Amino acid sequence: xxxxxxxxxxxxAYLQLLTDRYALxxxxxxxxxxxxxxxxxxxxxxxxxxxxxxxxxxxxSFTQAHLTPDFDTLGFCSLVKISxxxxxKTIENIKKEKYYSKLTPMTFMKNLSREDIARxxxxxxxxxxxxxxxxxxxxxxxxxxxxxxxxxNEVTQNDIKKDSAYYLPGDNIGKSGIExxxxxxxxxxxxxxxxxxxxxxxxxxxxxxxxxxxxVVSGKDITLTIDxxxxxxxxxxxxxxxxxxxxxxxxxxEILVMATGPDIDPNVFVGPEKTLNLYKLQMDTTYDxxxxxxxxxxxxxxxxxxxxxxxxLAGMQMGVMDENTVFPxxxxxxxxxxxxxxxxxxxxxxxxxQVSSNCYFTYAFISxxxxxxxxxxxxxxxxxxxxxxxxxxxxxxxxxxxGAKGRIPSGKFYEKRMASILKAxxxxxxxxxxxxxxxxxxxxxMGQGDVLITPLQMANFVxxxxxxxxxxxxxxxxxxxxxxxxxxxxxKKHYTLVQNKKFYTAVxxxxxxxxxxxxxxxxxxxxxxxxxxxxxxxxxQGKDNxxxxxxxxxDKPKIVVAAVMEHAGFGATWAGxxxxxxxxxxxxxxxxxxxxxxxxxxxxxxxxxxxxxxxxLKRKGLYREPNKDSLQLxxxxxxxxxxxxxQIRERISVRRDSLIMKLNAKKR
Amino acid sequence: MKWxxxxxxxxxxxxxxxxxxxxxxxxxxxxxxxxxxxIFFIISLVAGFFIFITRAKFFENMAGIFYILGVxxxxxxxxxxxxxxxxxxxxxxxxxxxxxVEFAKIGTALMLANYVSxxxxxxxNRKSLWTTLAIIGVPAVVVLAIPDVGSLLVFGAFxxxxxxxxxxxxxxxVVGIMALVFLVSLAVNPLYVVAGxxxxxxxxxxxxxxxxxxxxxxxxxxxxxxxxxxxxxxxSPVILEKMPKHQRERIEVLYKGEKKFRDTSGYNLxxxxxxxxxxxxxxxxxxxxxxxxxxxxxxQETDYVFCTVGEEWGFLGSTLLILAxxxxxxxxxxxxxxxxxxxxxxxxxxxxGILLIHFAINLGMVLGLFPTVxxxxxxxxxxxxxxLAFSIxxxxxxxxxxxxxxxxx
Lengths: 668, 409
Prior knowledge:
The complex is a heterodimer. Chain A is of the alpha+beta class. Chain A is built from 25 helices and 23 strands. In chain A, the strands form seven sheets. A six-stranded mixed beta sheet of chain A has the order 7-3-2-12-18-19, with no helix packed on it. In chain A, strands 14-13-23-22-21 form a five-stranded antiparallel beta sheet, sandwiched between helices. A three-stranded antiparallel beta sheet of chain A has the order 1-10-11. In chain A, α14 (349-355) packs parallel to α20 and α16 packs antiparallel against α17 (411-425). In chain B, β1 (82-84) and β2 form a beta hairpin. Chain A binds chain B through residues 1-2, 4-5, 7-9, 11-13, 15-17, 19, 21-23, 25-27, 29-31, 69, 196-199, 204, 207-208, and chain B through 263, 270, 273-281, 288, 290-291, 293-296, 310-311, 314-315, 318-319, 322-323, 325-326, 329-330, 333, 356, 359-360, 363-364, 367-369.
């Protein structure tokens, strides 16, 4: 008797305590869990304009375990308007999914129209294996800023692994941009309803009278710091260009504009073509176009002459120069056999900024390196520390989904480079005493050489100059659900290692001269004062990058702008107008200098990108001379990217389509 | 109180406890059935009361009548029985249904006790043995003809009682070994089983080599036994194949897992395990078992009633119930052993054996350790005939025990 009782108790212990197989089976088959997908939070710009909202969308889900043997395949197929073959194929594909299980509802069809749903809803009860799942979709009220906003997509297995308490197969998750960075705030909380089912899988009422059910909670609305009118303008000025425009409010660190060129129309992220569109964007690498690469935060550029501002501040802070220091730049730069063209005079700091003297800032940087005789690394490291305090060469640690560190080289960096150079030449000299000439470090002072900065970092260091020694971490979200962004990171002032107001006064004076009588004198405005610095960075691929930074108004800065246009040419010609137009619109609310804006929106650097692309292919030996037709086709496709009038665009696209048809016919 | 002396408080207490828990539990499955079960319980108590005021000798003297009545009722099923759930083992009078096999067990137990306690009974005597087997065999054959396999197994309980009275243990050894060989050769290649049999036989011969008197007869007997068992090993898959499909699957499901037979025999087992397994340590709470309330387990108020306990009362409740049964049945065997009269002892052993077989087979089936055989859990499954018959037997037993404890001899 005791033996039998013990056997039974042991068996009970196994079934009830040691295995959860049966508990799971019970939960899955006797209680149906229904999820109510919350509305994602709405995204507003700083002025309350809706950028991203939601639209209703429906899916049909399939649960294998509920498939009855008398399932009427043909009836169901005609209900959802697919063929039997499609049906079989879809089911087969579902079964191949990694996280497929007989009991999990799997997505069978997506993006059903409301009319379809109305029709299907009445009859679907006949097919217990299928059910309708409302899953709101994003609706974009704007047609730019795709990179900034980001997109949502179905969770991958990895996403589920990271937060398996929340995500289920078929759920959406923010994959990039704001959608990714603020996923937790935007997604809301799923509602859950537990429904007791009987043996025929009919619902017989809420399980435990619904006391375990959870209310659905909509996602939190997010107000960006972006001013969409400005953002839009910046994006228009970046058409047919690779580059970025970033504007900040230096008083708060709020990002007013974060435009990248090329831009993405976020409407491609929704609708039935979504997957194809995403693939196309990923694959669009001709001319190194790469639209998904957010150049405003991911691209690290040599900052060019804009960096001279920081060189001057660092030099003064380190005590190797002051505003009155004059370097021997009379006829240009001659230093140990190297020459750099001068700007026609031996001047102190302010005029050197005004004319952007390469010679002056190269000497200044040499003084920084040579501050500690015989120990160049120490000088460079001191300089790097000052640079890092301006937020360059480090991650900004803010609320954006992506970013880049950029590069501010250290003493070690050059010791390593020196060591490899010495090794190659077979010399046994000590790499610790590296040579700024041989390693190329002297070019850092004018923002070439080894210095790399993202456009956002550029705007940020300019904000620190505008504030004369401090900045708030640039951030993109102003308010969550109407309450100011609670993130403590954005409430802390970061002080730079340069705190002497005199140094800033001198640098600002130089920047003022840049606009009044210097390299950017063409960008003067009668309505507001500006401090600026042009940059024209040499790049190996081809034409120079056009760079510009701006502070406005001069006395009480309200906006700083940084702009980079790849391979455009002189800084004041391209990045300059774009920056000053943004500042004007922000400060005055209108735009008087329409011509500058128009110049930007109608210009294209595609020919230069194309030339580089072909040169690159030739270098790699991949280039083939195109035939006449495909060349013509490419030209037409390129011209469609230009900001042309609707009429002309249509004419070109009709001609292009007929050409494509002709080519296709030839292939057959 | 003087009159209460000799009443076995522990046994009766456990009986009442189990019956009340049964009513509560059946109410969880279905309130209406719970109320009916409560009425059956009250009727049973009334019947028990009348049995208690009857003289104990009455049952001994009237055993023959009860026995004949039971057998007649069983035979009467063939012309007058009603088929319920595929088995023609019910009488139907209007809305009242009666399962005579439950009562035939009482008659058989009484008759067996009566015969064994007779003055000229001796198991060594052929006549006694055959008469005994006939007493058990007649109702057993009728039950087999119905056919009601589950109840047939219960008649095995009488063999247990006879074992106490001196029946050779060989019966159990032989049946046990054959069942073991049969079941093992279904699971593994019969070749291994044959190897195992020969090895075991060799080992036994080797160990007993000094004691065995080898002659033609003993060698022939040994070889015949080994050959028979080997033959069984090879035959068992064939026997399984030849069995009716539903019976075959009930055995196969234990080996191959219930998922394979999800839509047929495995269904009950899967959901019975699901219900019990999802109970966890403390259970889901009274009337909150999702599998029970969804009525996923067929016959969950009768044969599969233990599922509800497992799901709603968890490991704790189920274990306590099993312990209660174990104590109760153990108590009955213990009391039987202390009886002064042979009649009481044989009846007690038969009663305990019937309970034990019911309990072991029912729980074994529900927990997936034994092939599905439709027999109820005594006192616990819904059903008037079963509860009433078991209660009558309980009352007779405790009345006999009461008289025995108060007798002066």
